[in-house]
């Protein structure tokens, strides 16, 4: 009788320990799973926004700009700002559709015609010069743009430190890329004035996007020599 009672007690204790172990394990597992799912959800959100937060640099605020959408980031200044060449004066402004010169990209071994204007008619012929910006070589922001599937098909290979050379009837102007930006298509900081001779080159991004690309790939380059 005592042996049966002892065996029964041992069985009850063993069963109780198993049930408790399962409950504890299940509770910890539930907490772990919940924490993991929250972590993964947070990671996805961070990855979605990280590229723009790291590459966007709104240097100048415009009245219609949205600082929350385009957070500011440190701007790298050229090492020898005081020695940068001054801009030149053109005798006259070109007309829309005029051939202005060439954009030479040594990194790509490319020489592309620059057409004054950025409507589709001009962009079909080559790189368009935004008429609202200064001419290449002048002391402000000269803005060029082109299609990612034609003239700027390989522009993504050009980065910080690479040269961009513009030749016009007034001379040859060599710029060095200081900054690469990826911004939303509505980011107007791309065309704002600059305190020194700057070349801003823009195309649609991503390069392999099927259909209308939502972003822009921007090269910001400083004038380092002219002749």
TrEMBL record:
<protein>
    <submittedName>
        <fullName>Class D sortase</fullName>
    </submittedName>
</protein>
<dbReference type="GO" id="GO:0016787">
    <property type="term" value="F:hydrolase activity"/>
</dbReference>
<dbReference type="InterPro" id="IPR053525">
    <property type="entry name" value="Sortase_D"/>
</dbReference>
<dbReference type="InterPro" id="IPR041999">
    <property type="entry name" value="Sortase_D_1"/>
</dbReference>
<dbReference type="Pfam" id="PF04203">
    <property type="entry name" value="Sortase"/>
</dbReference>
<feature type="active site" description="Acyl-thioester intermediate">
    <location>
        <position position="204"/>
    </location>
</feature>
<dbReference type="InterPro" id="IPR023365">
    <property type="entry name" value="Sortase_dom-sf"/>
</dbReference>
<dbReference type="InterPro" id="IPR005754">
    <property type="entry name" value="Sortase"/>
</dbReference>
<keyword id="KW-0378">Hydrolase</keyword>
<feature type="active site" description="Proton donor/acceptor">
    <location>
        <position position="147"/>
    </location>
</feature>
